[in-house]
Amino acid sequence: MLGAVLCIGIIRLLSDSLSLNISSAKKAFMQYGYNLVKFLPAVRDKLKEEKLKLESDMEKSMKVKSRKIGGKQYTSLPAQGMPGDDIIALMEGITKEENVMWQEGRVSGAVYHGGRAHQELLNKAFNLYSLANPLHPDIWPSGMKFESELLSMTASLMTSQPVQQSGVCGSTTSGGTESIILAAKAHRDYFREKHGITKPEIVACVSAHAAIEKACSMLCIKLVQVPMDPVTFKCDVRAMEWAIGPNTIMLYSSAPQFPQGVIDPISDISKLAVRYGVGLHVDCCLGGFILPFARRLGYDIPDFDFDLPGVTSMSVDTHKYGFTLKGTSIVLYRNKELRHSQYFCFADWTGGMYTTPTIAGSRSTGLIAQAWASLVTLGEEGFMRNARDIIETARNIGKGVKNIPELEVIGNVEAMIVCFRSASSDINIYSVGDKMTKRGWSLNSLQSPAAIHLCCTLQHVGREEVFLGDLRECVEACKTIGGGSAAEGNAAIYGMAATLPPGPLDEMLKVYNDVVYKV
């Protein structure tokens, strides 16, 4: 019996591995081995011991500052409430210190700030609608106006046709992840109803945002991953075509993708979608309010939107380069029929007929109102100016990095991301990142391949040489250490990660979340 189970497991593993690149296949085999032994008493006890040690270490490194804030920790409701003025004074003191890093342009992405006056406008707009809920358009009809116009304005950027003529439509969401989950859900339900597909598959490049992995996990969709081109880091279109099967419902592309910042060959992927009759999602969460304006400014931007016949959905984050407050994104569809598959409808509820367009029930009209305000106040002129400044800043930094012999720029700086790795065995790129962290920078560490990137925002405009100066000095400092040294920080973490299957790493990430939630 055990032999039969092992044989079946190996056959399934081999079948899944056919769609993976060599590195992913190796990890799949390692994961299979881990799954075989993880419940053995000795292994289980050792894992528990290591998790407790890891939790203790993480607490010491992560919670020191947060536990000092206010001089008191609340594990239950206070007997008497704190005066409002004291609460505001506490928060003002905290944010004054915490905001310095991003205000000085030392953070990669994360904070997409349109300036003090712009933020004050958004805060006022949110405050006016802080109690409003889109579930009740009869009470707040203005919220319905803002939401529909926000969708139309965003859709107009993704097609050369007038919006009403194109049929492009969408929904507001809480962020890029929800937008991507909803796009996957809409395609799943549409292809189940129209084509009878009950074991759906989505084909995506390994560089696709982790949100599509989350979507497939939540929606019971099989995710088939294909490799990047090893030179351009764009999706390998030939591998994607090979991965398409009878259960494929959607292809996934990025404009640009997060790691190296490159725009996938979406025109070619669109042809595949049309040829095989499947959907095509374009993750434009980063590029949505940069690429359309960059194209108008004359930058060489490949086709990526609904003008391509195969594109059926897009995700566009207003809370990135739309410069809105956090918690807003937009998912767009080619037509209402596909959007209908996103909706949740329950006509038989005893509480009355019920429907919601997205995952949430109650939502914040305040977030919708401030997003509308952001787009209307910036207008085309403001977005064109911001796009030019951000792209030129990224390219200036990219040129500077190229002049550092020990580093290699990868991804060609197509938009806002400058990604680089070590060009010398004498340099450990994660050690460079650790040294930049000690100088007050917060950069993104990447893997497969090992690299670092800076996602440029308006906060980096005019500060290129500050970044490059620190980077040169950190590289010089790492030359004295050597590439084989990876004893601390991200250098140690990612060095270990490269040798382990996903299972133990997933356990480590669970511990991280537990520590974040711990008082």
Strand order of the largest sheet: 1-7-6-5-4-2-3
Low-confidence stretches: 4-15
Distance between the termini: 48 Å
Q: Bin the helical content.
A: 40-55%
Helical stretch tally: 20
Helix/strand-derived category reads: alpha/beta
Main beta sheet, described? Answer: 7 strands, mixed
Computed CA radius of gyration, to the nearest angstrom:
24 Å
- What percentage of the residues does DSSP assign to strands (E)? 5-15%
Summed over residues and divided by their number, the pLDDT gives a mean of 91
Overview in brief:
With about 525 residues, the chain is an alpha/beta fold. The chain has helices spanning about 1-15, 20-35, 40-60, 65-70, 85-100, 100-105, 115-130, 140-155, 165, 175-195, 210-220, 235-245, 265-275, 290-295, 335-340, 365-400, 430-440, 465-480, 490-495, 500-515, and strands at about 170-175, 200-205, 220-225, 250-255, 280-285, 315, 330-335, 345, 355, 405-410, 415-420, 445, 450-455. It has a seven-stranded mixed beta sheet with strand order 1-7-6-5-4-2-3, with helices on both faces. A four-stranded antiparallel beta sheet has the order 10-11-13-12.
